[in-house]
Amino acid sequence: MRWTGPLESAALLTVFPVPARAAASTRGVLPWAPLIGLALGGAAAGAAVLGDRWVSPTVGAVLAVAVLAVLTRGLHLDGLADTADGLGPLRGRERALQVMRQGDVGPFGVVTLVLVLLLQVACLAALAAADGGWLPLWVAVVTGRLAMARTGLPGVPVAEGSSLGRTVAGTVSPPWLTGCALTAAALIAVATGGELLRAAQLAGCAVAGLLAAELLFRRARRRLGGVNGDVMGAMGEIATTATVLAAAVVL
Question: How many whole angstroms separate alpha carbon 185 and alpha carbon 24?
Fold first, then answer.
């Protein structure tokens, strides 16, 4: 395990300033992505709480989504849009990958972005209004990074032409990913103050998010032949959205 990984992960996945030497490598990006999610989730939850107290739950929800977009440079949202353009229309593998490598966003990407962001804001506002807390948001952001880390497991195929996919392939071991998931579960238990039912509900929401990301992964594997940077980002956004949606339903 690369112990410079947290800096490498922060360099690629956030706008946080890191030494230039750390930004030169991407091998540690995926193993440490859940840790980065913990920091991003905390920042987003803090912005949400302030917006809720100063104005309204809806404003808090918008601020949370905006902070995540800014702190990640919109990288995962861009990946979501590109993946939607590649997987949405009925086209062959080579054409789908070509579309995803283009810099513009097509109609499938635009519609997907709008719907996902609206769903995130609506669910977060409902959670705040009903429960007064933003813990599900924090859980959702970490879950999104767990879904991204899953793409670094050994044996995960890489889409043709993906330099990032080749670099991070096999960098996440199953025991490491399991440890990250168990640590996240333990943090949920601590954050809920020992309320077992609430902790179990939040953990279940995280599982729902991971399952949604897994469906996207399987779709990408069939259509694209594997994952690339766009698919990794899209899996993170889908897992985050599905987690907050599940939380809005059950909490």
Answer: 32
